[in-house]
Amino acid sequence: MPIIGIDDTDSKTEMCTTYLTIEILKNSNLDLIGFPKLVRLNPNIPLKTRGNAAISLTLGRGEGKGTLVGRIGKEEVRSFKKYREEKLDIDVMTLIERFSPKDKDTNPALLTTSEKNSEGFYWDAVSEFVDYKKIIERVKGEFSSINGQIGIVGANAAVSWPGVNPTYELIAYLDRDKWSGEHFVDDSSSMYIESSLPDTFDSFDFRNKYNAIRPTTKTPVLFGIRGTDPTRLIQYENYVKSEPYSSYIVYETNQGTDDHLIERSIGETRLYNSAIIRGFVTSGPVWERGGVLCFSIEMNKEEIKAVALEPTKEFRTLLSKLRKGDEVRVYGGITRVGFINVEKIQVVSLSKITEIRPPLCHECKTRMESVGRSGGFRCRKCGARSRTGEVRVEEREIAPGYYEVPIIARRHLARPIKLGIIK
Fold first, then answer.
1. Would the pLDDT of 31 be above 90?
2. Taking the model in full, what pTM does it have?
3. Residue ranges of domains in the chain, CATH in brackets
4. How would DSSP label each residue in 203-215?
């Protein structure tokens, strides 16, 4: 039974790797076995494309009625649990060559295999920097590529994904002659999905007026609805007011899973990996050039700087309420040595910020003045003295709990708080 993994068939400005699913199903007489897989890879890698996605399809001859997962033109697409094995009946690499951008930085790759590789390949590809040269000999199956072999990492990761805590996305596609130009997806549809359908996520950012189901580049995709129930996503397709589209497919995905995040000590972090780091705020927060908010955290005499960049918008203002001594768990990616870009934070506990100021004079009801480090306080009017000052505890503007970047800045892999914290 052929299992296909595909990666890097898009660029930073055009195409979408998931569209190959449509062309494969249009040209093959085989059926989908299970859901098609949409797997996002390590979001910190410099070579990534827009969504840094790879796909995996399992094909065979389905038996029984199957489950509705999409439509291509007027034809329904169903996935099957019961099947009999068949050989692949199309040249997938020819399709990849036809639809991939003619871009020297794009490295389209195809892996065809009859069995999944070790899931360890997936966990490395989603959270670490993987040197493709070191894994090629360990990959099971036949591998083809264009412009280089970097795409083997994503293709193999998609095939190897164990599907832990999956979510789903319904993606609607345009006909080829409509990929360019402006497209219409009504904001009110996205607003309704975000506010009224609790099993969906990352559809509309109300504060920043951002429609997150609609892409902003030249792509076959008209819109995508993310959620936790694939059957309901097919119903929700009808809620979207948009221009006509020709096809849609529901994918099983690792989006919204936090799969890329691993609990690490500060000393265990490496360039391009993702981490959850626990520590105490030691300095900051301070505003730096470009609207960057920065603060340092420390644990076991190891220190790292946490940064929130301008695209995280109001999240920076929230982080500015942190103070020295606060205990936090920072979720994010290492894009510079010694720095972690914050995508989510847990405030574990707050330090007690106290201020000692001159007390009020009991006689004059005016505030006393300090008379030196060890001299206590004295009233300027009547000369009364006090050895102790007035202790005031600062009222904090932040509380223990979880906080995340707004939807406009959220990574595909980041698990929204509304879905529940699993790490």
1. yes
2. 0.91
3. 3-253 (3.30.70.2200), 266-352+397-419 (2.40.50.1010), 354-393 (no CATH)
4. SEETTTTEETTS-
